[in-house]
Design goal:
It is a single chain. This protein is an alpha+beta fold. The protein has a single domain (9-78), classed as 3-Layer(aba) Sandwich (Rossmann fold), CATH 3.40.50.1980. The chain contains four helices and two strands, in the order E-H-H-H-E-H. It has helices at 31-35, 38-41, 44-47, 62-78; strands at 20-23, 51-54. Strands 1-2 form a two-stranded parallel ribbon. The longest helix is centred in the last third of the chain and has 17 residues, at 62-78. The two termini are 13 Å apart.
């Protein structure tokens, strides 16, 4: 799998991610609905608590994007390697 690749839930177990960015829009599955999916619960990153919300709303300035990127960078720094 590539560094950044969109993946359907049906094939999520084929991707061995160390950190999963979860779409945060209201049209995406909620954390509770994701937790109800066996495929989701079995992912190593999910089991390790290594998920982070991916904020999809448009920001119109560098100052607007800074906190989003800082939060993502923090999640990347804290994530530990799970895959071979």
């Amino acid at each position: 799998m590539g560094l950044l690749e969109f993946l359907s839930r049906e094939n999520a177990d084929k991707c061995h991610a160390d950190l999963i960015m979860v779409h945060n829009r209201t049209t995406a599955l909620s954390a509770e609905r994701l937790a109800a999916k066996a495929t989701w619960r079995q992912l190593p990153a999910v089991q390790a608590g290594q998920t982070v919300p991916w904020v999809m709303e448009e920001r119109y300035s560098y100052a607007g994007y800074a906190p989003v990127l800082e939060h993502l960078a923090d999640a990347v720094r804290k994530a530990r390697k799970l895959s071979a």
